[in-house]
Amino acid sequence: MLLSSYPTLHIFYLPSTMNQQERIQAFVEEIWLWYAKNKRTLPWRDLRITDSTERAYQILVSELMLQQTQVPRVKIIFRQFLKEFPGIKNLAAASNKDVILAWRGMGYNMRALRLRDCAKTICRDYNGIFPTGMQELQSLKGIGHYTAAAIRNFAFYLPTPCLDTNIRRILHRTFVGPESPDGTWEKDDAYLLQIAEHVLTEACRHPTYTTADWHGALMDFGSLVCTKKNPQWERCPLTRRGICKASYKVPTALQRKKNSSEPGRSVGSVFIPNRIFRGRIVEELRNASLGLKPEEVGQRICEDWSPRQHKRWLLELLQKLCEDQLLQKKGQRYILAS
Prior knowledge:
By secondary structure, the protein is mostly helical. Among the domains are: about 45-130, Orthogonal Bundle (Endonuclease III, domain 1), CATH 1.10.340; about 265-335, Orthogonal Bundle (Arc Repressor Mutant, subunit A), CATH 1.10.10. The chain is built from 15 helices and 8 strands. A two-stranded antiparallel sheet has the order 1-4. A two-stranded antiparallel sheet has the order 2-3. The longest helix has 19 residues, at about 20-40. The protein is globular. The relative contact order is 0.13. Residues about 1-15 and about 250-260 have low confidence and may be disordered.
């Protein structure tokens, strides 16, 4: 995604005579000190849960929720979801409609079906017990390298280097330098994973904290201090101690070009991607137990609805939602998939 224009970045490099190992040690020390005072309380980090399968299940649910949704919303829906499906066997037995209804307010509804299908596989192939190996975890539907590593770190306390958006940003800014004005990075994930491994080895020397604490610390630091926009450099211990390779003010309003490759349509002067309309359709059908006819759907999701102009486009969206098993057609109406 390209930038049409952006303000000048004010970059200054902090003088430092640290070698790489000294930088790693100082970085770990400062992150641990910061975490001790500023750690967030999140329901999926509840250390009172002693059963590793229960922890793994809650981590799996939270990670899929957090992929496209902000933490405050996830905290609310996470608790509601666990009331509906308290364990992995409950989720594995759920219908499409059950999980879609429980996913209300999250968006990106395919995540709900992937989560349920993942639970089915674990119950069928592993007798309801989570595998611990990276290869086995990554073979599960909807689980990539990061989510597999998160399950190992948070549920089983197995030190596993990984990158999410926060960790990637922290490590690159600290050990390489700032991102480019267009948001790209000089070094790729393979390089940053090597740094993550060295840093994790140092972090795990701590006498009381675990790999779960370390990755939680990085995520909290990235969410609260080393943010994508407006990083809190005046509050950043890495900056004050000269650990970061570079510190700078990130532009607050980068004007991005519309991603013309994403399908959608314009409503007035505003381009709305099809994924937004898909979410609106599912939400309307959550509230319509008897289903809706295409014309009724169109009237509810499009403020400029015109059957002559938009009906074909809408029918294609509805057909794709049926193929994705989010909806099904019943006579002349569409309903949530059963």
